[in-house]
Amino acid sequence: MGSTSVSTSGSVEPGEGVQPEDGKGTIRVIVADTQAIFRVGLRKIFALEDDIRVVGQAESLDQTVAAIQKFSADVVIFEAALSPNPADAVSDLLRQNASCRLVVVLQEPDQEMTLDLFRRGAQGIVSREIEPEILVECLRKVAQGEPWLESRAVAWVMEAYRTQGVRPAGSRPKVSLTPKESLIVSCVTQGMKNKEIALRVGTTEQVVKNYLRKVYDKLGVADRLELALYCLSHRVVEGVGQAKPAQPVQPAQTAQTAQTTPPANGHAPAAPETPNAAAAASGSRS
Q1: Which terminus of the chain is less hemmed in, N or C, by CB atoms within 10 Å?
Q2: CA–CA distance, 148 with 60 (Å, rounded to integer)
Q3: How far apart are CA 164 and CA 144, in angstroms?
Q4: Rounded to whole angstroms, how far apart are CA atoms 7 and 180?
């Protein structure tokens, strides 16, 4: 069964003969991995399956993004080592194509990475030494919309959920978050990465990380997944959601107030100056 190639020296090109005659029931796969021998090996494995076709290959993160944009794929096999921050990369790739499902390949089992990847939307997480027949089964399950985790990873996810779900409400001291901490927490529960949160809040990624560490300590959680579960079980998200709309509106309301207040000299202020004055006034209060 003809499989296909896609990437060479920094570019991604369509292969030929990758679609079956009727186009039904075939799982279209993009293989993104730094090692050529691994990509070739997967192509040979999938060539033996009637229902799996490799429609694209990539050896870098940029090529993976290009492949997702160019090809209609059902599943992307994505090596975590392609990105210095695999969890952020998963969010970015899913933004490029929300209907595509990601199976992330880890060099070795990693609890924290697994939890973060799963929370970010990875549909499957496997280790490098996975057996070929198991990977084929994984692709079929993921293509049907089912999550795939190895037994150890399932235990990690269940433990993270159980730690939040069964812990008595009184086992943690009641804490309150500052408005900025609440906004950052709300962004985390929406799946935003630190760079996006920094832009939203108007600060740097390092400051966001510092805030998150403080929030972890306050709430007694260990990572972003536990934070999200805590927010859901303690209704933190609901309260923050009610406060969020007021923040972007406030500067505009200040500007309108300045426009409707008659100046002492009886002349209306120049249009370009009013927003700047409002912004300065708003900044002085923060």
Answers
A1: C
A2: 24
A3: 29
A4: 44
* Three-state secondary-structure class, residue 48: coil
Structure tokens belonging to residue 194:
């630190």
pLDDT in tens, 108-148: 888 888 988 988 889 999 998 899 999 999 999 999 989 89
Count CB-CB contacts under 10 A for residue 178. 12
Task: Residue 65: name the closest of 20, 97, 87 by CA.
Answer: 97
Mean pLDDT, to the nearest integer, of 238-262? Answer: 44
- Give CA–CA dist 57/63, Å, rounded: 8
Nearest CA-CA partner of 35 in 87, 105, 103, 91: 105
Q: Which is nearest to 188 in space by CA: 229, 161, 224?
A: 224
Question: What topology is assigned to 7-15+23-162 in CATH?
Answer: Rossmann fold (3.40.50)
CATH topology (fold) of 168-243: Arc Repressor Mutant, subunit A (1.10.10)
